[in-house]
């Protein structure tokens, strides 16, 4: 299958776990559907969903939790 990466919807800190709950937004290896939230982009106090572009199986994150992404 072709690689289909997930792009950050802006510049901010990538979060695997939702800051409010501390729970993972989506687990690596799990099936995801198009438009499903798979991570969170933290921009100051604002949170923006990182969305799956297609149906598939979620791999390991390419960015560490807290890494600045979106450049």
Strand proportion: 25-35%
E-strand count: 6
Counting H and I runs of at least 4 residues, what is the number of helices? 0
Judged by helices, strands and strand pairing, the structural class is: mainly beta
Task: Sum up the structure in keywords.
71 residues, globular, two-stranded antiparallel ribbon, single chain, four-stranded antiparallel sheet, mainly beta, 0% helix
Structure report:
It is globular and about 30 Å long. The N and C termini lie far apart (27 Å). It has 71 residues and is an all-beta fold. It is built from no helices and six strands. It has strands at 12-15, 31-32, 37-43, 46-51, 56-57, 68-69. Helices cover 0% and strands 32% of the residues.
Q: Topology, please?
A:
Layout: E1 12-15, E2 31-32, E3 37-43, E4 46-51, E5 56-57, E6 68-69
Antiparallel strand pairs: 1-3, 1-6, 2-5, 3-4
Short description:
The chain has strands at residues 12-15, 31-32, 37-43, 46-51, 56-57, 68-69. It is mostly beta strands and 71 residues long. A 4-stranded antiparallel sheet has the order 4-3-1-6, with no helix packed on it. A two-stranded antiparallel ribbon has the order 2-5.
